[in-house]
Amino acid sequence: MTHRREFISTVSLAAAGLALAPLAACSQESPTPRAQSAATPAPRPFSGKLITRPIPSTGEQIPVIGMGTSGSFEVGTDAAARAPLREVLDAFVAAGGTLIDTAPTYSTAEDVLGDLMSEAKARQKLFVATKLSGVTGKQEGLAQFNDTLRRLRTDKVELLQVHNLRDTATQIALARELKAQGKTRYVGLTHYREDGQAQLAEEMRRHKPDFIQINYSPVSRGAEQTVFPLARELGCAVMINRAFEDGRLISQVRDKPLPAWAKDVGADSWAQLFLKFVLSHPAVTVVIPATSKVRHQVDNLRAGTGKLLDEKQRQALIAALA
Description:
By secondary structure, this protein is an alpha/beta fold.
């Protein structure tokens, strides 16, 4: 659902040619990117196999690196703006990524995603997560959902979430009706701030969703205290947004060298370390960094391979950002 500056010289090019949150979940590019220097080392393409984790309610395995669309996919019908997103989607699918998170209130993101999935004939390979967002009452929610299906060019989604706990009881009841009708496989609840986590925990106890979505990063660890233990107790999958703190973490380390131990977990960028930190918590199922640049997409995907951080490395990363 925010922005990584283009300072990473080791990022890769792809082998395959939240009330509402006004932000992109964990994106990483700057609004005004710099051209890549001629001295930049040749990029390394994605390789390896993405780690998968089970959705507790069913055991279905999903790759740990997903993709957000807030901000990044809100480009309307502009062909030039859509072109790099086509590459981003192609790289994601080619690497075996599946979960893409969107919402009807991310301006044109659902339209753009729907068109690009259709062009790439990729819909059947993807796990599409969207939301009942900013609506009140069953009829308003149902009308929004039907419009979402039209915009996404599909007849069903894999996950339908109540966005930021708006009209939660009514909307999750609707989501469960749609699940019974085969219009979604899973239902969920979302929030994107630490001050919403107590309410999220209350709603989790009340409604016992299949998924929850919440913010988490090395500097925002409140979810460790209540949300994560409760998710494990209730058997909820956990989707993480804002892993880069809306780009602030990337900016904070822009001029810092990677710690020497990064090579021990196969990381060659700070973004990979931040994502590996998130994924190293056992409660986390998937993280959804958003990007409109294919080299950042490949960099993100590489965080979902190889080793994750042990407790000593987690604490070292936290200390490095203090």
